[in-house]
Amino acid sequence: MNRLKTILVSALLVSSTWVCADSDWALEREKDGVSVYTRDVPGSQFKAFKGESVLDVELNRAMALMDDTAACVDWMHSCKSPVLIRKLTPLKRYSYMVNDFPWPAKDRALLLSATISQEMVDRVVTVALETVDPESLSADDKAKLPQDNGAVMMERAKGFFRFTPLGDNRTHVEYQMHTEPSGALPASLVNAMLVDTPFHTLKAMQGVVKAEKYTDFRPF
Is there a contact between 95 and 69 (Cβ–Cβ < 8 Å)? Predict the structure, then answer.
């Protein structure tokens, strides 16, 4: 546990968490305990999204869900074929997943780094997400990437999940993301579908996070 706390402090000091300013967010949907906002991103045709909700579980159960790569298909909207490429430390990993896009668009694949940091005073945990260049992987890790699945690799995606303990076994979750989906996808199409991703992700998370298997994870 002392080693884990040391790693947490180190990760907090070097964390490159992407944070959007609180201004300019436009509320797009508020339903079933989930609020979704979008905003323009300078220099991009594609908007960013922010989703917020409250989970009826303690912080550690939420983090146990985030630690379960295979469970992505149960709560992350349009997620399929998740693969844990490498767990570099307890607080940093590389993972691969495919986002299921509606026909005739090709699916999009994501190779992401996930870096966890925690603010020690209030216990807020941030999981920073950012795309990784497949060419930067070792030969062994490259071999773990699915081949010839027809998906287009996203070159740029950045965002985070942030979990804030509220007491009484409740946790506020904020999910922000901006992607450049690559290929010939019209920005108008992507932006039109944007709200569904955080809405369905957080709505599904509300239920999946209560699974019994997530009760004994307690590093946070």
Answer: yes
Structure confidence by residue, pLDDT tens digits, 155-189:
899 999 999 999 889 999 999 999 988 666 678 87
Query: Could you tell me the CA-to-CA distances from 210 to 75, 149, 187, 204, 205 in Å, in that order?
Result: 12, 33, 36, 11, 9
| 3-state DSSP assignment of residue 75 | helix
Whole-number Å distance between alpha carbons of 10 and 149: 37
d(CA 87, CA 67): 10
What's the length of the chain?
220
Token pair recorded at residue 32: 């079933």
As a whole number of angstroms, the distance between CA 95 and CA 161 comes to: 15
CB 175 within 8 A of CB 75: no
**Residue 55 to residue 163: CA distance in whole angstroms:** 9
Report the 10 Å Cβ neighbour count for 31.
9
For residues 138 and 145, give the distance between their C-alpha atoms in angstroms, rounded to a whole number.
Answer: 11
Residue 68 sits at φ, ψ, to 5 deg, of -95, 85
Over residues 23-79, the pLDDT tens digits come to 699 999 999 999 999 999 999 999 999 999 999 999 999 999 999 999 999 999 999
